[in-house]
Amino acid sequence: MRDTNEMKFLFYPLIAASIYLTLNLARCETQEPASYQAQQERLQQAIQQQPIHGHARNIILFIGDGMGISTITAARILEGQQGGNFGEENSLSWESFPNTALIKVYNSNQQTPDSAGTMSAIMTGHKTKAYTFGYDQDVVRGDHTSVEDYEGNSRKVTTLLERFEKEGKSTGIVTTARITHATPAACYAHSPERNWEHDADMKSKHKNAYEAGFKDIARQLIEFPHGDGLEVALGGGRGAFMPETSPDHEDPTNFGKRLDGRNLINEWLLQPQSSFVYDHAGLDAVDTNQTSKLLGLFEPAHMQYEVDRAKPIYPDEPSLEQMSIKALEVLRKNEKGFFLMIEAGRIDHAHHAGNAHRALMETIRLSDAVRGIRKSLTKQEKKETLILVTADHSHTFTIAGYPTRGNPILGLVVGNDSKGQPEKEPKKDALGLPYTTLGYVNGGGYTGSVLNKKSDSVSHGGTHFHGKFGDGGGSLVAGKDWKYINVPRQSRPDLSKVDVECENYIQEAGIPMGSETHGGEDVVAYAEGPMAHLISGVHEQNFIFHVMRFASDASQFDD
């Protein structure tokens, strides 16, 4: 056996080495980049997070129409870059929510879905066919006689908004699209055809339904039969509520759409403590203490894109955040609680047009609305409010090309060299031509086109952009409806001298289509508040309804 001195001789260096390693490991740990420390902090927050099992007195449902995962990623990066950062490390407001799930979005009869069917699933708990909402999956699109079965039983399914109204709670919808458009309409209406927004639509497309007196969507909002009707409806779409003989509030050359002679706006105003507004100033002036019923219609059709909203050529319109907060002020007065649906509807429209810039800016403004609502909730309201953020479907929108860290997300791809350092020139494809990070699988931009600056203009409330494509890539021609006239090219255009980051640039697409299509992959649902922990895993889209209904059912929490 070794003596004590020999043991000390061996032991002390070991102690010294251990101390040295400990100190150096600690030193290394303190020298880790900020991202490392940030994730350590995020881990601690996750460990301490506890599910809220109580009753959700209120539900706020945010819908990013067409907001797939790639849209969220690109918007996150763009927002960060607009703030002077690389962008990739940025987070949108809902990305701090503690609970997420993947959501399967197909319709009962369609692999890649339509917004009417997807929103109907979210609001009723029933999968249904594309282009229909508020009925079960046996209804036939465009056939008003199919809304009942052979025994005369209605195929209607009850929406969550209807349930809230029946329970004496307050309800509201906010959207940047027409409030009769598929997503908001699926909250309060029932229709075998999403395009029956007013009676003129019905007469032109399905005369039998019109002659049978089937209620159009605008009429269903005003004649809503449950509770005391919706408390708040804010968005676009004045035309569907006004007779064809009535000039628009802001544009006297534009008239209403209705054939029945009814002015549904005036009928709304017959309710006690009701208000109607059509611009930003009017919305700001609303005294919510004296207003129980608020209707705001800020455009004859869809509201302007956020990029265009502040331009002097358009009437002043409120932002999605401003509308959302005003709606909250009206709804929160009900002690029984409320349901509020808030939709960034024009993400979808910009994607259909192949215009990534506007789609991403609409997404960023949705993030602002979520942030604004969260800040506006009191401490007690936060404990009682389930907030969900999700999408009805995605788009064929892609992010690719190996760009270097911090490369402008809307720009040409600039990669890294063999040493991992940014190159000085954009990457080239197999034809020797530069390309962008963002693109579409299909759509009107398959020629790699950009709107000519000399003729740039944006369709007033429309889906597509006026003007001419540059570099011989095709053209847009005027008609009753603005449409793309696609002219195939032999090869891609040279984008080296094209401002691909300008707001009117149409991203390149792989397959020629008059309009880019929806995507069929899963979307994400984010949740916080009572019962938010149920949003976890991979679920059918109609699962969201069942979570909202369960969380809001006060009876299950009774002693």
Question: Quick gist of this model?
Answer:
The chain is of the alpha/beta class and 559 residues long. It is 30% helix and 15% strand.
Description of the structure:
The protein is of the alpha/beta class. The chain has 2 domains: 381 residues, Alkaline Phosphatase, subunit A (3-Layer(aba) Sandwich); 61 residues, no CATH class. Helix content is 30%, strand content 15%. It is built from 17 helices and 19 strands. The strands form 5 sheets. A 10-stranded mixed beta sheet has the order 5-6-4-3-7-1-8-18-2-19, sandwiched between helices. A 3-stranded mixed beta sheet has the order 10-11-16. The chain has a two-stranded antiparallel ribbon with strand order 9-17. Strand 12 and strand 13 form a beta hairpin. It is globular, with a radius of gyration of 27 Å.
Layout of SSEs?
Elements: H1 4-30, H2 34-48, E1 58-64, H3 69-82, E2 99-104, H4 115-124, H5 160-166, E3 170-178, H6 182-188, H7 199-205, H8 207-211, H9 217-222, E4 232-236, H10 264-268, E5 274-277, H11 280-285, E6 293-297, H12 306-309, H13 320-331, E7 338-344, H14 346-352, H15 356-376, H16 379-384, E8 385-390, E9 394-395, E10 397-399, E11 438-443, E12 457-458, E13 465-466, E14 475-477, E15 483-485, E16 509-512, E17 518-519, E18 523-528, E19 537-540, H17 543-552
Parallel strand pairs: 1-7, 1-8, 2-19, 3-4, 3-7, 4-6, 5-6, 11-16
Antiparallel strand pairs: 2-18, 8-18, 9-17, 10-11, 12-13, 14-15
Helix pairs in contact: 3-15, 4-6, 4-17, 13-15, 14-15
